[in-house]
Amino acid sequence: MSYLLRRIAFYVLTAWAAITINFFVPRLIPGDPVQALISKQRGQLNADAIHSLYVLFGLDKQDPLWHQYVEYLGQLLRGDLGLSFTFFPSPVSEVISTSLPWTLALVGVTTVCSFLLGTGLGVLAGWRRGSWVDLVLPVTTFISSVPYFWFGLIMIELLAGPNSFFPSSGGYDPGVVPGWDIDFIGSAVQHSLLPALTILISSMSGWILSMRNMMVTVSSEDYITVAHAKGLTDRRVMLGYAARNALLPNVSGFALSLGLIVGGTLLVEIVFSYPGVGFQLFQAVGAKDYPLMQGIFLIITLSVLAANFIADLAYLVLDPRTRKEG
Amino acid sequence: MRVSRRVVFAVAGSLMAATALTACGGGGSTAKGNADGVLNVGMPNGPQTDNNNPYLSSSAANSLGYKNVIFEPLALFNKVKPTDDAKPWLATKWDWSNNYQTLTLTVRDNVKWSDGQAFSADDVKFTFDLLKATAGLNHNAIPFGDTTVSGSTVTATFTSPQFVNEYKILTDTPIVPKHQWSTFKDPATDPVKDPVGTGPFKLKTFTPQTVTLDVRSDYWKDAPKVKELRYTSYTDNNAQATALATGACEWAFAFIPNAKQVFVSKDPAHNQLYFPPDLAGHGLWFNTTKAPFDNPALRQAINMVINRDDIFNQGESGYFYPPITNITGIPTPAGNSFLAPEYKSQDVKVDVAGAKAKLTGAGFTFDGNTLKDPTGKPVTMTLSDPAGWSDYQTDLEIIKDNVSKIGITATVDKANQDAWTKNVDTGNFDAVLHWTDGGATPYQLYKSIMDGDLYKPVGTPGVNGNYGRFQNADATAALKAYASAADDAGRTAAMNKLQKIFVDNMPVALTSASNLGGEYSTKNWTGWPTNDNPYADAHPTLPGALDVILNLKPAA
C-alpha cells in the first residue's frame, strides 16, 4: 500500500511541475498573440484594431507574471481552462472538445491495431527463426527508421490528388454535416485512411522488433524445453508458454503509448491537416494562443501521467516481484 | 489461451473489415448545383468555433465573412471606387456637420430584425453607445461622443473630425439589435450563438467546417436569388485551391501560386480572378534612422531600380497584389482622384542610369561595381521577411537582383516569423517588405508610413505603423491638417503636400497594392463585379460582399 501512496505522491508532484512548465514556456516565446494575429492577416487587419484586441485578450494590463501564474492555478482548480485567443471568446475546453474526438479515434484505433498486429507478427518472427519470416526483420528495421511525417508526405504525393479516392487534407468532406449518418462516417473514414495507414506502418515495426527479441530470449528458457518434452503442440508452446512470458515489456509499452494517443501524432496531423489535437496545438503555437496551448499541454500531460499510473498498476498485478515490500 | 487468441484476432479482423466497408460506402456529398439556389463560399481558415459576434475578428462570422449577410451597415461605400457616393442602406440619408464631428442620419422604415421585431433608431444609438463603452469591441477605435435619438433621426457626435473614418462608421459598423444585445452580460465575450440581424440571410446550421445560411422571406429589399449560402472553411490554401479548381467552391479569397494554371485554366470560360487594388500598399520599408538608409537619395535610387512588373508577375503570380506604379505610392486607379497635378502621370520606370546619377549627385561614389556611401563605406543591405511568406521571399530575391545593378550588395534573410515581427516592432532591420494601413483615402496609407505621432525610437517596441522610424514634422502636420480640414480645398492642399514629402523622402518603396479581390466562378451564378463593372469589391469577408450576393443571378 505504501508503494501505491509513494507513486501517487510522485504523480502529484510531476503534475504540478508539468503545469508550471506549461505556464511559463509559452510566455518565453518571442511575440504576443496580437502581433501574431496582425502578421497573419498581413494588412487585412487595421492598426486601429490593435488596441481593442489587447483590451479583449486582457493583455492591456501589466500584470506581473507570478500573479498571472497564481491566478492560472486558481482557475485550474475550478476546472476552468480560460478563453482561447484564436477563437475568442470560445472557452478552451470547447475548442479542445471539437478536436479531441478526431485524435482519439484516429490515433486510438491505429495504436490498438498496430499493437495487436505488431505483437502478433513479432511472436511469429521470434518463434520461426531461420525461416522466411526472418525477412520481416530488415524490412521493419528499415521502416521504423523512416520518419513517419516524411512517409506521410510520400503517401500524399503518390496516392492523393484532385481526382484521387484519397483526400490529402481535412477530417471530412466540406459540406457534410457531422452526425451519426452514413455520409459523414463514410467521409470521415475515407479521410482517415491515409493518415491511419501512415501511423500504422511506421509504428507497427517497433512492436515487431521488441516482441521478436523477447521471444528469442524466452525460447531458450528451460521451461520451453520442458514444454516441448511433454509433447505439447508447437502452437501451444509458442502462445501459452513463450509469448505469454515475452509479452510483459510490450504490455507496459502499450500502456505508455495509450497516454501518447491524446498528444496525437502531431506531425501526421500537420501533414494531413487533420483536425485533431496535434494540428490545433500547431496552430495555437503559431498564434501565440497561450490559453489554448496550456489547455492542450495540460491534457497531454495528464493523460501521459494517467497512462503511466495504469502501467504501474498493471505491473503490480502482472509481476509479483513489484508487490514485495522492502 | 486459445480462446483469447481467437478473441484478439476476431477483434482485429472486425475492426479492419469495418474500416474497409465504410470506406467503400463513403463517397461524400459533393456541392449541389444551382437547382436549389446554393452559393458555395470558401475561406482557407481552418476549423471554426460557433461564434457569430460581428465585432470580434476571431469569430467565425468574421473569419468566413457571413456576418455581412446577417448584420447590415448604415450605408455601403464601394471600396474599389472610394470617392463614389455610398449606397443608402439602413440609413436613408446622412449629413455631417460641425467639421465632421456631428453625424445626423435618418434610419429606414419597414426594416425587420430576423426575429420579427422592428428595427429602429434606438438600435443605431445602442450600437454606437456599445462601441463607445466597450473598448474591446471598438475595432476601428472610433472616438464616439454622445448619441441622441428623435423619431427616426439619430444624431451622433464624435470627439474629433471623422472625415477619414467615414467608411468605418457608415460601412464597417454593423448595426446590432438592442433587444437582444442589451441582455448580454458582457457583449465583448459573447459568442452570439443565435445571431439576429437585419440582413437577407439567417443562420441555419453551424459545423466547425461549414456554416449554412437560409434566405429570409421578410427581407426589406428585393429577395435575393441566392436561396442558401454555404461558407466552408478549408484547412489550408491548398485545399481551398483544389475546391476552387473542381468547382466545389464558387467564391473565395486565397493566395494561389500559379492561379492561372491551377484555377483559371480548369474552366477558362467561368473561372475568374478579380483583384482590384485597395488604397493600401506593400513595399520595401527602410530603416530611416540607420546610415546609409537615412539618406533620401539612396532610398529614391533604390525605388528607381525596383522592377515592379517582375514582382507582380513572379512574386504575386500575376494577379494577387496589383503593382503600384505612381511615384507617390498611391495605388491607381482607385486613388486617381487624389493625385497631385505634378505627379498625375509620373510613373516609376526602371532607370538604372538615372539612379546612378542621383547617387553620385548626393555624394555616393562607385568603386568599380561597388557603391560607396559619402563616408567611403560600401553599401550593403539585409532584406528580411519570414521564411514561410513565399511571395514576399520571391519579391525580395527580385529586389536583391535589382539593387545589385547600382552596386549594392544585398542579402536575403529568411527570418523566423516571431523574431521578424519583434525586429520590425523595435526597428532592428535594414529593410523589410511590409504592408501599410488602408482606408477610403490615401490618408491611412501615408499616416502609417510618415506619422510622427506613431514614432518610437529604435529599440522601443509597440509601434502601430511608422516601422521605418520616419521623422518629418511637416508630414505629421500635413496629416493632422488633412484629418481635420474644414473643406475639400484644405484637404486637397494637405494631400498634395503629403505626396511631395513622400516623393522627396521615399521612406518606403511601395511596390504593390493590397487587393479587394476574390476568385469566383460564373458557371452557376452571374452578376459578379468585374473590371468593367466594379460596383463592389469581391472579398467574401468585406462588407461589399453583401452587395455582391444581392446582385447574383442564376446563370442561364
TrEMBL record, chain A:
Q: Where does the record place it?
A: Cell membrane; Membrane
Q: Which UniProt keywords apply?
A: Membrane, Transmembrane, Transmembrane helix, Transport
Give the chief site where it resides: membrane
Q: Which residues form the ABC transmembrane type-1 domain?
A: 100-311
Q: From which source organism is this entry?
A: Kutzneria chonburiensis
Residue intervals passing through the bilayer: 9-29, 100-123, 135-156, 188-209, 254-275, 295-318
List the Pfam families hit by this protein, alphabetically: BPD_transp_1
Q: Record's CDD domains?
A: TM_PBP2 (cd06261)
Protein name per Swiss-Prot or TrEMBL = ABC transporter permease
Tell me which InterPro entries the record gives: MetI-like, MetI-like_sf
Topology in membrane: Multi-pass membrane protein
What family is reported?
A: Belongs to the binding-protein-dependent transport system permease family.
From TrEMBL, chain B:
The secretion signal range is 1-22
SUPFAM superfamilies recorded: Periplasmic binding protein-like II
Regarding the membrane, this protein is recorded as:
Lipid-anchor
State the coiled-coil residue ranges.
none
Q: Which family does it belong to?
A: Belongs to the bacterial solute-binding protein 5 family.
The question of whether Methyltransferase is a record keyword is answered with: no
The record's section on PROSITE patterns has: PROKAR_LIPOPROTEIN, SBP_BACTERIAL_5
> What's the name of the protein?
ABC transporter substrate-binding protein
Record localization: Cell membrane
Origin species: Kutzneria chonburiensis
Q: Name the Gene3D superfamilies for this protein.
A: Dipeptide-binding Protein, Domain 1, Dipeptide-binding Protein, Domain 3, Periplasmic binding protein-like II
Keywords noted in UniProt: Signal
